[in-house]
Amino acid sequence: MFNEGDSSAWRAARRRGASRLLTAIATLLAFFGSGPAAASRPNILWIVTDDQRSDSLACYNRGTTGRSRSRLGYVESPNVDRLASQGVLFTNAYANSMACAPSRASMITGKYPHRCGIYGFEQTHRSAGCTSRMIPEVLKEHGYQPAAFGKSGVRIFPREWMNQWKSPGFFNPYVSSEALEKSPHSDFWFNRPWGRHDGKGMVLGTEEVYRYADGSTRRFWRRRVDREITPEEAAHRREVEAELDILRTYTRSNPDLIIGGRSPNVASATLDGSIARSVQQYLSHPGRAYDSLVGERLQGPDPAKPIFTYVGFCFPHTPVLPSDEFRERFAGQAYDAPAFTDEEAELLPPSMRKLRDDMDFSRMTYDEKQQAIRDYYAFCAMGDSLIGKTVDAFRDYCEQRDQEYLIVYVCGDHGWHLGEQGIEAKFTPWTQTVRCSFVVVSSESGNYAPGTVCHDAVEFVDIAPTFYEAAGVPLDAHPGLDGVSLTTTLREGPQRDYILGEMNQVRGDWAYLRSEDFNFAMRVRPFFTKPG
């Protein structure tokens, strides 16, 4: 399964020999000549977004195609563009799985899904002796203060807290996206009340709730298991959906996902806006207690210790609801929606053809496709503004204390299709799902030279060794890591001849390999099942 542009990007990396040698020499000179500050442990900011395509970044498009627009059309990312100009943009950062939980687990453990034990969306615990250690756990042991805000998504819990969705305890504080959704600081959430029906306890239904800028809410039942939706309730739902221009995945097997619409609130009061504000709250209370947005009394960072701050934004995962101020900037844009015919679909392997049928985008109308693409990129632009606010708050904290810092931005825990292969989804071994990007900036610019674009293949498992190296954690104390630090790739060139990824659920068990010359994916079991 070849994808246009992959081979040229890999070959471009191979042609950088002379410039790489000069960069490596400059890096080594900067490293050895930087004095005592080089040995200091930097504050670390780690930002991860959800389902974000790399072509939503103008800097990525310029680095890979020479123009700011994506192949589909207009995008806007001034804050990430600025960040990339101050450090290194990695254009071939591959997810080790095409689903949220195993992809995120490969980052936080530094191990492939089949080695860290996070195969899909099952909950896991850490009681077994072979359990993989996680970044915040290791850094905490080395004097860091791990704090987390937003979506975690790795589904790793203490055994005694299984099914309670509690943090493993390495982050303090931990302000989760779930907690923010339940507070008055989100523009949208699901209400799933528990009750009894036919003598059994169960979730009685799904209610969508929208919060407006004036604090009011509008809600409607999407479904109930204990009774039919009344005509009045159905009419109210249509009224709210029309007001917010809601577009759903009606051509998919799951017809309820929101892939277009407008938020009823301003950007700062959306769920992602509240995640950014939670980070700002934390960093603006050094050494002091404060009342968080979720109503908890939390403690700000100790300025005498290095901080490790993880920020998991939810955008542009469904529901795709950009706020008006960003949606309006994209209103006049027309996009080149990818075409994919039924004849092309017949050439797919049976399992991928089934996935295409279940996640079909091709049967939507022209206007619906335009809205889906336009609102997706507008949502990414809104998120870009929040990334900018988060980075600025972190930098201010570091610079006020004359402390070194390292910023790592992962553009998407995997990607997203906007009509390629006929789908709007993820879960595939194709480029739009598995090829992502990193932006890395360091106050010690010798490690990550400003304005560098690296086309070498790196993987999500490289995140953990990158943080450990920066924090002074001996890598030989963690011999099970599958990745290598990003600085090693910058100094020495490509560290692998191919990348490895896998998917152990959804359409059966898959593995994929990618190199400069080929893309290969295959079923590794002859049946559809969960791992076991």
UniProtKB/TrEMBL annotation:
One of its GO terms (cellular component) is cytoplasm. GO terms for molecular function: arylsulfatase activity; metal ion binding. Keywords: Hydrolase, Metal-binding. It comes from the Bacteria. This is Arylsulfatase. It is an enzyme of class 3 (hydrolase). Residues 42-473 form the Sulfatase N-terminal domain. Its EC number is 3.1.6.1. Pfam families: Sulfatase. InterPro entries: Alkaline_phosphatase_core_sf, Sulfatase_N.
